[in-house]
Amino acid sequence: MPEAPKALSDGGIVVENNNKALKFIEDVTVNADDVQRRVLSEILSRSADTEYLRRNGLNGCTDRETFKKVMPVVTYDDLKPDIERIANGDTSPILCSHPISEFLTSSGTSAGERKLMPTIDEELERRSLLYSLLMPVMSQFVPGLDKGKGMYFLFVKSEAKTPGGLVARPVLTSYYKSSYFKNRPNDPYTNYTSPNETILCLDSYQSMYSQLLCGLCQNEQVVRVGAVFASGFIRAIQFLEKHWCLLCKDIRTGTIDSNITDPSVREAVSKILKPNPKLADFVETECSNGSWKGIITRLWPNTKYIDVIVTGTMSQYIPALDYYSNSLPLVCTMYASSECYFGINLDPLCRPSEVSYTLIPTMAYFEFLPVTRKNELTGSISDPTSLNDEEKQQLVDLVDVELGQEYELVVTTNAGLYRYRVGDILRVSGFKNNAPQFNFVCRKNVVLSIDSDKTDEVELQNAVKNAASRLVQFEASLVEYTSYADTSATPGHYVLYWELSVKDATLIPPSVFENCCFVVEESLNSVYRQGRVWDKSIGPLEIRVVENGTFDMLMDFALTQGASINQYKTPRCVKYAPIIELLNSRVVSSYFSPKCPRWSPGHKQWCTQN
Ligand code: AMP
């Protein structure tokens, strides 16, 4: 197995380490198939005695052929009973021979709760390895990145404990709290404007405020800016829009606002913040000039690019990022999940629509299930939940995927997932040596997403059904509905278009519709509710009641675009601008959810901790 590059210890060996990282990428992509074979064999030999592999009759075999013949291809729900046993405290080797160190809470959901992904200590090292490849790749395209700092808005989220005592938290929270991040060696590529204490502060206001303050104080040194997802970066800029007066006051006086009460944050910021009236004047002038166009390049003039994920549902934020940055390059560096970190973008300055990720063959054993489109027009994907033997045969290995073909990603990881369907659809866009590169096409089934929430059609349907039942007492019923993720303002919010059959609309007080909005929110999954309550990354849900006949017009419109009348089904989510315009032109009234839904960290039945 090619050896991973070690972290840098001083600036002098930057070039050498970059070369090592690039050589590593070269080696593993040239030898992709060998590496994959070895990865699988190592996982299987190590986990030979686990209950899961025994139960499925692998009998200690470690070869690809037997593995493919006997092991089922599974989804989270298939593993749920095993995962619940681990969560409840069973420490026997159920899925993995190594002790489960914690659960990573995925933004995907099952039965309204976050999925729990078991992980083991050594996975942190694998994640660090992927991170260590990013800047050497970037440096091939943008020189001088080792000469300045990165202003990255990074955040931790709350944790919970499972009944068996394991911590459950998001993968990035786990990473930022680990020594890999906190005690990272002095390295020009991980030199951030935000001190660790500001990132690790659980209070999202204090964390955001202090990170922005430190970013402004070091504005000349910043050469790149970013966050994980585009939505998070936009949130930071809009926080600045709201709070720049306070921030300027702090910069002018060199003292931190009294709302920042966390002592470790105050101490860390005080090492950076010094009275600087000139900088305060500059920031004040830029922020008060009436337009926020190009604010990023104005306040941080040496910025060369914005590092955020804008592939998948995040592409909705590209226009806003272009506006705030005067079209700086938007760079998507990596593709990862709670289950496993997958790959990196080897051509980071390409256009967002052309981003492709090269899966790194050492990260896991990858297989690919060819995707068939059920319906050419809507593009909906045929999605068998459990695969029969014939369908199982269709899974192909990393080096055998075909250019242009779409696949669902299936992974076997070191942490105890075997032939696990991640739920992402990827399209082969090219090859780096023998390793394929993929465009991220979409997340299967997801109809609505603002931030890390992923709401599927079934959840939406159930939530709408619960809410619409409140209309019965007013002799009204829901005839048709669709939805739209409105990100024109921040935070974005879900919009539902409702067409009603109603005897006398004047008899329904507005509070009934407001309550319907609230019932939908209460019925949605815990990631959505966390976004509303904790992260405040999602605004109140809105119901727009439309005139009768609107959905017939929608169908007529689809027919003019080539839909077949026999196949036409009302889309449960709309994205196409002319359709949204049509719906908006027919709105008779609109209502917002009056309060936040209920949410607490952890699954409903667990005790929580902070
Ligand atoms: P989570 O398990 O909550 O970390 O979410 C992981 C999911 O986020 C992936 O399976 C993808 O659906 C999505 N995701 C992660 N990275 C990217 C990316 N670079 N582009 C598009 N979607 C991504």
From TrEMBL:
<dbReference type="Pfam" id="PF23571">
    <property type="entry name" value="GH3_M"/>
</dbReference>
<dbReference type="Pfam" id="PF03321">
    <property type="entry name" value="GH3"/>
</dbReference>
<feature type="domain" description="GH3 middle">
    <location>
        <begin position="357"/>
        <end position="443"/>
    </location>
</feature>
<dbReference type="InterPro" id="IPR004993">
    <property type="entry name" value="GH3"/>
</dbReference>
<protein>
    <recommendedName>
        <fullName>Indole-3-acetic acid-amido synthetase GH3.6</fullName>
    </recommendedName>
</protein>
<keyword id="KW-0436">Ligase</keyword>
<dbReference type="InterPro" id="IPR055378">
    <property type="entry name" value="GH3_C"/>
</dbReference>
<dbReference type="Pfam" id="PF23572">
    <property type="entry name" value="GH3_C"/>
</dbReference>
<feature type="domain" description="GH3 C-terminal">
    <location>
        <begin position="459"/>
        <end position="575"/>
    </location>
</feature>
<dbReference type="InterPro" id="IPR055377">
    <property type="entry name" value="GH3_M"/>
</dbReference>
<comment type="similarity">
    <text>Belongs to the IAA-amido conjugating enzyme family.</text>
</comment>
